Amino acid sequence: MDILEYYGFQEDPFKFTPDPSYYFQSVTHQRCYSSLEYSVKQREGFTVITGEPGTGKTMLLKVFMNNWKDKAEIALIMIPRLSPNEFLMTLLEDFGIDYSQKTNKVNIFQDFLLEKATKDKIVIIIVDEAQNLPNETIEELRLLSNLETHDHKLLHIILFGQPELNIKLNSPDLRQLAQRIMTRCTLSPLNENDTQDYIKSRIFRASSNSNLRLSRAALKTLYKHSNGIPRIINSITSRALMATYLDESKLMEKHHVKHGLKSLGLSEVSKKPIQFNFTFFMISVAILLIFVTYYDSPLLNKPTPVTLSPTSTPTPSPTPTNQLKPITKHVIADWANVRQNPALNSEILTSYPKGKTLQTINSTVDDNNRVWYKVYIDKTNYGWISANVLD
Q1: Rounded distance, CA 254 to CA 236, Å?
Q2: 226: pLDDT strictly greater than 90
Q3: Which of 26, 61, 327, 375 is the 20 to 30 Å CA partner of 113?
Q4: Rounded mean pLDDT of 316-328?
Q5: Which H helix or E strand runs over 381?
Q6: What is the dihedral of CA 228, 232, 235, 239, to 10 degrees?
Q7: Nearest-angstrom CA–CA distance, 325 and 244
């Protein structure tokens, strides 16, 4: 009996290829997907999605394409190391547009965009691994984004890439493009709860009747060594599953996960000697006792406390400008983005649907006289939201 049959799986639950049917909507993935859809529907022109390798950018890309394939014309560029002319030729071929080497490719592409606009169909260019785009090709994308009617853009461009993409886009050479990017979102690793739900979700989708179970210690070890990155979670769990199978067990335990880590070269299974920890502890206690004895000794000359003059008064802290008493506001747009800074090109931290109640705690005005309100996202984090989307 092979491993899939033994655990009642129809397919490998931890396969490495991004399969949209296995899409897990974590908090961070939901936030970025909502921001992406909002940006496209509003015809903003540019969207940037970044994340460390393995955090699920390609999975998010495929889910978006599946949901929009009947509503938009989409070209996907998977090999971005192209010159401007090569990039434009690839676009025309991907959209099925006939051209010859002597024709003006930009004019042909503009005619294609205008034709689709008459049919109210959005045209989208998606570039994966966009951090590898040459600067001159990124500038060509900026020029293509100039194609528009009197009321909306003819083209929407989505760039998926690693964090280096943001560094590149913020360089002085590309500042004109950076100013046009209205929506940026970063995919973060999964937290511990999402990691556990992610693993259970993949097992369920491979078979709703699987007999495989994971111990709490196994799940904690998986999270600890994967740091919540889906690709690494899949790698470790796949190897741990094989170790569990070889033990003829239906329960994956911590030692199975450690065996999987060892096979990937991510961790050592052997434990550190206990004597080393005990010795270190005893030395630390001895040093602490010496310090306390010396500090309490009458031979130690302790400094005399300094008394402040009665006339000395502390300088008051400056009162922040535009400080407000908490004011209740409601989101009036379909979706409203909360950004890291009070600027339209700042990174999106989260998004709220229409009707969401918010408490504003501060306000400011940007260079374009746009009013922004400061709002708490949770107990410790806050962001900025435009007054235009609030009542």
Answers
A1: 12
A2: yes
A3: 61
A4: 55
A5: none
A6: -60
A7: 58
**Contact indicator for 47, 183 with CB cutoff of 8 Å:** yes
C-alpha–C-alpha distance, residues 364 and 373, integer Å: 7
Say what angle helices 216-226 and 254-264 make with each other, to 10 degrees: 30
Strand order in the sheet with 323-330: 323-330, 357-365, 371-376, 382-386, 335-339, 348-353
Give yes or no for residue 317 having a pLDDT over 90: no
Provide the token pair at 36: 């992406």
Mean pLDDT, residues 166-185 taken together: 90
Q: In the chain, what are the domain boundaries?
A: 3-15+190-264, 27-187, 323-389
The confidence score (pLDDT) of residue 71 equals 92
Which residues lie closer than 8 Å to 184 by C-beta, 6 or more apart? 47, 48, 49, 50, 166, 345, 346, 347, 348
DSSP 320: P
Contact of 78 with 128, CB cutoff 8 Å: yes
Torsions phi, psi of 127, nearest 5?
Answer: -115, 120
Task: List, in order, residues 6 or more apart from 82 with CB less than 8 Å away.
Answer: 90, 133, 134, 137
Comparing 137-141, 293-297, 314-318, 351-355, the range with the smallest average pLDDT is 314-318
The CATH architecture to which 3-15+190-264 belongs is Orthogonal Bundle (1.10)
The Cβ of residue 333 has, within 10 Å, a number of other Cβ atoms equal to 15
For the residues 184-213, what does the mean pLDDT come to? 94
pLDDT, residue 269, reads 39
The CB density around residue 298, as the number of other CB atoms within 10 Å, is: 6
Query: What is the per-residue pLDDT across 8-22, written as a single tens digit (0 to 9) for each?
Result: 999 999 998 899 999
pLDDT mean across residues, the chain:
84
CATH number of 27-187: 3.40.50.300
What is the DSSP pairing of strand 213-214 with strand 72-77? unpaired
Q: Select the CATH number that applies to the domain covering 323-389 from these four: 3.20.20.70, 1.20.58.90, 2.30.30.40, 3.40.1170.60.
A: 2.30.30.40
The Cα 337–Cα 349 span in angstroms is 8
Mean pLDDT of 27-47: 93
Q: Distance (Å, rounded) from C-alpha 339 to C-alpha 346?
A: 6
